[in-house]
Amino acid sequence: AAAGLSYVGAYVINTYKSYDNFLQDKYALLPAVIILCVAVVMFAIGLIGCCATFRESRVGLGLFLAIILLIFIAEVSAFVLGFVYREKVKTDVQGTMYSVFEQYNGKNPESKVVDYLQEQLHCCGVKNYSDWTTTQWFNSTGNSSVPRSCCRQDAKNCSGLLHQPQEL
């Protein structure tokens, strides 16, 4: 389990590099760091449990049980906090995404991240393609189109025009 958590934590940190412009709050990496710390602690606890079982130590097994109960309580608390604050996290991420979309000009690093995100997630805009209608880029192009990264991969002649929403 500790190895699995280590992999998940490392994967989240590695993936974060692609989306760091959207997650301007550096605390966005905190869950991944916590997962890695939990993996280390789980390895140590597993080692204690194995040693206590091997030696048939009642004190060691009691300590192992107490630690497992504390971990269970911490997991339940984390679940409740995640459930309670899910809307705040959603609002914060959407606000940051809107600000990054507002900075889109097709050339800057933020633009590359937006294009990458839209291509990887097969989406257009924060909620849908109409989000682009309020950006400076949309108004400056004058042709009522969204970036080509909004186009479906199977659409061959997609130009990003809004009168062809089936291609977005």
Structure description:
This protein has 168 residues and is mostly helical. The chain contains six helices and no strands. It has a domain at 90-167: Cd81 Antigen, Extracellular Domain, Chain: A (Orthogonal Bundle), CATH 1.10.1450.
Ordered list of secondary-structure elements with their pairings:
Elements: H1 2-19, H2 30-55, H3 58-84, H4 86-102, H5 109-121, H6 136-141
Radius of gyration: 23 Å
**So what's the CATH class of the domain at 90-167?**
Mainly Alpha
H/E order of the elements?
A: HHHHHH
Given as residue ranges, the uncertain stretches (5+ residues, pLDDT < 50) are: none
> Approximately what portion of the residues adopt beta-strand conformation?
under 5%
- Classify the oligomer: single chain
Can you summarize the main beta sheet? none
The whole-number mean of residue pLDDT values reads 82
- The SS-based structural class is mainly alpha
CATH architecture of the domain at 90-167: Orthogonal Bundle
Query: How far apart lie the N and C ends?
Result: 41 Å
Give me the CATH fold name of the domain at 90-167.
Cd81 Antigen, Extracellular Domain, Chain: A
Overview features:
Cd81 Antigen, Extracellular Domain, Chain: A; transmembrane; 6 helices; mainly alpha; 168 residues
Short description:
This protein is mainly α and 168 residues long.
